């Protein structure tokens, strides 16, 4: 079972409904009825595979239209079956997981800690009706990613079920697993059901939470895993199984035989990009043992093999999202080594089904045997892809800072993107954010190189020092080095490409970046390469303008405190790597874009950069999205974003038109 998303650009509405694919017959069909503005997620099977439970916002009175609240729904797998509501809780729910025996479901809801769903709904409604709109805080976070903290927290609930001929009903009221805790599970802003796990016999439940009780939440990265005995009518108090580690522990997963809990763990407090290890908790002894200490890679996700002998894990390595087999002795071997795989599901014979994407194709569902033989299962996008010009990405390596080999991608402009099919094209130089991230071989709806190749640009993307997937030392090398090795890598690599790819016109270069990539755009505008400003124009999306003030107005203080090696007091690093202090040297035209709900890098940075540009008389524009956060997520806004960016770079790279 899987969800499929479609979008209607003419009306700016979308739909996400459920589909099923029959592994034996190789047939697929839509399971839940289509309807615009319907949103469905988290499909999970009944124990006999006769029905599915899922989250849906359908209207119980008219299932083809959205309702007022997301609830738990169910549908039997048969001909012409229609979805039926399972829950009618007084507030929306999300993040659904079914237990292994079918005795429970787990779900999340934003409640007032210490209050039931009904009580929380009443309190929240009263707040909304008050004439005074003011919020008082006595600790951090006051806001996070794209939302203000108004007192509601995401708590995980367990609901008992009973089954009759493939149809289930709820038994009693759901139980809040977190009680009075002023904390979130799943953790915000990106946690999901991968942070939960039921034991095979449903006697235990494990979940991840962050320590939010004090303001230290803003400068520590400590996540812990808790287990709770759920056999009794009243669940026992949750027990922390990772309390000795003050860094992040997350994604608990019970082994199929119930003897172990595997989880992901970092050993460096306050560093979100520290190496991620696999650790094993022994259920009988309570001991914790690291499994991947000798593997210089970070594990992104894991799923147990059916015989409890090991795992399939995903890692980012050399700009690919690979699948590895990992056994309990710590031995590993690659299973899928190209493109980007995620959302793994394992069969009893250890075949694996997963989501698979690349720069050439958006996500489709694939199956791999235990020996790595791949089969594509879904083909929804092939007709549309056949109507588009796409450019095949080419990998290359060059010698960057410190004599290290640096990985990069280059794409030629797509065929027929410019009239006359010239032999050379301007280059769009994309700089990734993070900064501890990577230009992976995946399909992005925010920074997709095909959008620039299709617009008549050769595209270059470099995984500079600080990027992930090349060993932890390479990632760590950007600490207190924002404008050092990365700046050298970017310019040296671009010189290398221009000298080795004849289809690139080196006289027409534009650069674009977001987040840290936006920081680098602001840095580039104040720093020449080989005595000259090399770019015709720049694009900065949600980038840091003032590194020192960034510490004061961001929410996750651990980012600057780690990367700048401390707080700003008596710390010269913040000014050493501060683009604002070099704005008097800016000369290059620049487009500045910012989201009004970006609380990671607040909009004052975009406004500050635009003010500096205007005050110096530099050609510039400022685009403001009042309802977007650090990313542009609304489809219509994304279309506008791309149109505006392409128009800006065309103006300088194609002054005579195409």
From TrEMBL:
- Pfam families, per database record: PD40, Peptidase_S9
Stated name of the protein:
Peptidase S9 prolyl oligopeptidase catalytic domain-containing protein
Under the GO molecular function aspect, what terms does this record hold? Answer: serine-type endopeptidase activity
| Matches recorded under PANTHER family | DIPEPTIDYL-PEPTIDASE 5, SERINE PEPTIDASE S9 FAMILY MEMBER
Q: Which InterPro entries match?
A: 6-blade_b-propeller_TolB-like, AB_hydrolase_fold, Peptidase_S9_cat, WD40
Q: Does the keyword Mitochondrion apply?
A: no
Q: Where is the Peptidase S9 prolyl oligopeptidase catalytic domain?
A: 443-651
Q: Which GO terms describe its biological process?
A: proteolysis
Name the keywords, alphabetized.
Answer: Hydrolase, Protease, Serine protease, Signal
In its keyword annotation, does this UniProt entry include Acyltransferase?
no
Q: What family does the database annotate?
A: Belongs to the peptidase S9C family.
- Gene3D superfamilies in the record, alphabetically? alpha/beta hydrolase, TolB, C-terminal domain
């Amino acid at each position: 079972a899987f969800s499929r998303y479609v979008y209607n650009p003419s009306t700016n509405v979308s739909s996400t409904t459920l589909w099923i694919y029959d592994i034996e017959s190789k047939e697929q069909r839509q399971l839940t009825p289509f309807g615009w503005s319907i949103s469905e997620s988290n499909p999970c099977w009944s124990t006999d595979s006769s029905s599915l439970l899922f989250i849906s916002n359908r209207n119980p009175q008219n299932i083809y239209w959205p309702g007022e609240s997301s609830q738990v729904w169910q549908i039997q797998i048969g001909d012409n079956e229609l979805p039926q509501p399972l829950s009618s809780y007084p507030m929306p729910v999300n993040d659904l997981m079914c237990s292994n025996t079918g005795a429970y479901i787990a779900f999340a809801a934003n409640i007032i800690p210490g209050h039931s769903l009904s009580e929380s709904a009443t309190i929240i409604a009263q707040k909304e009706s008050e004439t005074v709109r003011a919020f008082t805080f006595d600790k951090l976070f006051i806001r996070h990613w794209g939302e203000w903290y108004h007192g509601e927290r995401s708590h995980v609930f367990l609901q008992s079920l009973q089954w009759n001929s493939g149809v289930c009903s709820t038994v009693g009221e759901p139980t809040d697993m977190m009680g009075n805790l002023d904390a979130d599970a799943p953790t915000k802003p990106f946690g999901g059901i991968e942070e939960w796990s039921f034991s095979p016999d449903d006697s235990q439940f494990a979940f991840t939470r962050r320590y939010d009780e004090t303001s230290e939440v803003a400068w520590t990265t400590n996540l812990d895993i808790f287990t709770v005995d759920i056999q009794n009518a009243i669940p026992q108090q949750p027990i922390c199984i990772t309390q000795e580690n003050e860094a992040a522990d997350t994604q608990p997963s019970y082994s199929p035989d119930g003897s172990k809990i595997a989880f992901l763990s970092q050993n460096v407090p306050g560093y979100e990009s520290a190496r991620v290890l696999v650790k094993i908790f022994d259920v009988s002894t309570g001991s914790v043992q690291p499994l991947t200490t000798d593997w210089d890679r970070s594990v992104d996700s894991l799923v147990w093999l059916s015989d409890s002998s090991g795992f399939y894990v995903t890692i980012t390595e050399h700009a690919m999202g690979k699948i590895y087999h990992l056994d309990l002795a710590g031995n590993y071997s690659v299973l899928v080594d190209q493109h980007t795989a995620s959302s793994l599901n394992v069969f009893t014979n250890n075949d694996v089904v997963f989501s698979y994407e690349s720069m050439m194709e958006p996500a489709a569902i694939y199956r791999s045997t235990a020996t790595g033989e791949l089969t594509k299962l879904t083909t929804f996008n092939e007709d549309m892809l056949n109507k588009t010009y796409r450019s095949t990405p080419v990998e290359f390596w060059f010698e960057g800072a410190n004599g290290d080999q640096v990985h990069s991608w280059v794409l030629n402009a797509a065929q027929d993107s410019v009239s006359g099919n010239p032999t050379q094209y301007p280059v769009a130089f994309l700089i990734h954010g993070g900064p501890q991230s990577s230009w992976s071989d995946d399909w992005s709806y925010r920074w997709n190189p095909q959008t620039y190749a299709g617009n008549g640009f050769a595209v270059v993307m470099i995984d500079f020092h600080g990027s992930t997937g090349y060993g932890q030392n390479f990632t760590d090398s950007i600490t207190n080095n924002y404008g050092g090795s990365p700046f050298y890598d970017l310019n040296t690599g671009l010189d290398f490409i221009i000298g080795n790819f004849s289809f690139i016109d080196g006289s027409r270069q534009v650069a674009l970046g977001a987040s840290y990539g936006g920081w680098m755009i602001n840095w580039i505008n104040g720093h020449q390469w080989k005595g000259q400003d090399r770019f015709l124009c720049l694009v900065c999306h949600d980038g840091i303008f003032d590194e020192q003030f960034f510490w004061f107005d961001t929410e996750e203080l651990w980012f600057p405190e780690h990367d700048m090696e401390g707080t700003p007091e008596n710390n010269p690093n913040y000014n050493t790597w501060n683009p604002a202090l070099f704005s008097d040297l800016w000369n290059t035209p620049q487009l500045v874009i910012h989201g009004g709900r970006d609380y990671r890098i607040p909009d004052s940075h975009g406004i500050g950069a635009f003010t500096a540009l205007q005050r110096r008389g530099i050609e510039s524009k400022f685009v403001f999205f009042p309802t977007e956060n650090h990313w542009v997520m609304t489809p219509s806004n994304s279309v506008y974003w791309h149109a505006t960016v392409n128009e800006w770079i065309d103006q300088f790279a194609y002054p005579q038109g195409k």
